[in-house]
Amino acid sequence: MQDQSATQFEIADPPTDGITNVVFNPTDSRFLLASSWDSTVRLYDVEANKLQTQTKNVGAILDVCFGNSGNIAYHGGLEKQIRKLDLETNNEQSIGKHDEAVRCLRWSSETNNLYTGSWDRTLRVWDDRSAQTLQQTHELPQKVFSMDICHNKLVVGMANRQIYVYDIRNMTEPWQTRDSSLRYMIRSLRCMPNGEGYACCSIEGRVSLEFFDMSPETQAKKYAFKSHRHTVNDTEVVYPVNALAFHPILGTFASGGSDCVVSIWDGVNRKRIRQFPRYPDEISSLAFSHDGKKLAIASSYTFDEGERDHSPDAIFIKTLSESDCKPRTVANGS
Q: Which of 240, 281, 312, 323 pairs with 257 at a CA distance of 20 to 30 A?
């Protein structure tokens, strides 16, 4: 077995409070962004293992994403503002705001627009090249909890297990409205790299794979499975699944839970490929680099159990071998 210390290291100068998101530069796996409840956005050079730059804000930052280049980031949080950050100069500007906390931000290279979801029950579309930055506002039935975009599909996960799917080329109304097949609150959702659907996870130790094509043949492929559960004194303990991330090339995916464990799954063949040794605390966010060679892992207490002693917040960078994420081959179609 490969030595964990040989394939993984801990990032220097991590956030000092709950880590809400980690995300690699979409074209350069050297750079990683992190947002946190400590009100900072941090940019790391993971090859040099150093904090490249950071900006401090008024309230907790709940999400961050890269923009149309590796030098631009957008972030939002409890302050309700959506801010554009130049990572070279550290200059910041507000491009607009929501009425409540900004929970999710996603940039689309297809439209060069920014999409934001909020606890104010709206989805908003922004174009910071325009004098009128706010392009569209879409009312939603519930607070936004998670959001992701792939090609022309924007998937919005909300309270009450509701999911809206938009075609960003025409957002007059949702392309699809559906309920999560999971029975409990959504924690995270992520789109499949091939654009065929998405994975969704819940507080009740389950992950589901859902597909956009509504034909009976395709819908027969959807399923949910139990994960991040452990037997303690003959009792099954169920942990929330907090984070998901798809391998950008192989299509397998990682899940991270409040059991402090990261697992790699082959969704097509319904197998677990790998489970890594436990991390110091709960897994709050996961991100693959664009080439699939690195996995960023945020080990950060998510306050499932309220105030309690917990390990310091940390970000680990794991170098992956091909066997860590390669799909299982199925012999003779069995």
A: 323
d(CA 29, CA 66): 13
Structure tokens at 108: 């689309």
Largest Cα span, the chain: 62
Lowest model confidence (mean pLDDT) among 79-83, 202-206, 317-321: 202-206
Do residues 274 and 266 make contact, with C-beta atoms less than 8 angstroms apart?
no
Do 280 and 260 touch, CB atoms closer than 8 A? yes
Strands 229-232 and 197-202: unpaired
pTM over 0.85: yes
Helix (H) or strand (E) holding 45: strand 40-45
For residue 167, the Cα-to-chain-centroid distance in whole angstroms is: 20
Contact 300, 35 (CB under 8 A): no
**Model confidence band, residue 89 (pLDDT cutoffs 50, 70, 90):** very high
Taking the C-alpha atoms of residue 95 and residue 92, their distance in angstroms, rounded to an integer, is 10
Q: What is the dihedral of CA 250, 252, 256, 262, to 10 degrees?
A: -80
Query: What residues pair up with 152 in beta bridges, in sequence order?
Result: none
Side-by-side strand order, sheet with 92-97: 61-66, 72-77, 81-86, 92-97
Residue 297 has pLDDT above 90, yes or no: yes
Give the number of residues written for the chain.
334
Q: Dihedral sign for Cα 264, 267, 272, 278, please.
A: positive
